[in-house]
Amino acid sequence: MKKNFILILVVVLIAILSFTWLRWGPNSWEVQISGTTGDGREIQYRLETVYPGTSKTLIFRNEDAGFFPPYFKFDSANLQALASRIEEQCPEVPVTINGYGWRISFLNMFPNATSIDAPKHCTQASTRSPGSSPDVPLPETTD
């Protein structure tokens, strides 16, 4: 009787750990960032992406994870700014978004982005004016 109880307990623990890993385990997606929305207060940060070479979209939420699940992510505003910069400077360049979670439409669930791996030239601050062509030199200013 005691062996059966221990066996059932082990099976239940394995099932719980498996579900937890599948639900909150890390994942990566190679996508192109096509938009960023939200202000972090009333409207949740979102990253709008598209798979390269397709029209299939994937939306990520971008919120602090805190201590559970244990990603210790407290920089959603910084990640949003990085995504916005990548969207402006390199809209056609695929990037890798790391995160966790599933996209389940009917439950309104989105994976949470934890980091973005992008080419260095896409993540550095631009020295040009927003909306100007990269080939047009900046006007000189006199102080």
UniProtKB/TrEMBL annotation:
One Pfam family named in its UniProt record: DUF1523
Renumbered residue ranges of the record's region Disordered: 121-143
Listed Polar residues bias regions: 123-132
Source organism, top-level taxon: Bacteria
Protein name per Swiss-Prot or TrEMBL: Uncharacterized protein
Organism name: Ectothiorhodospira marina
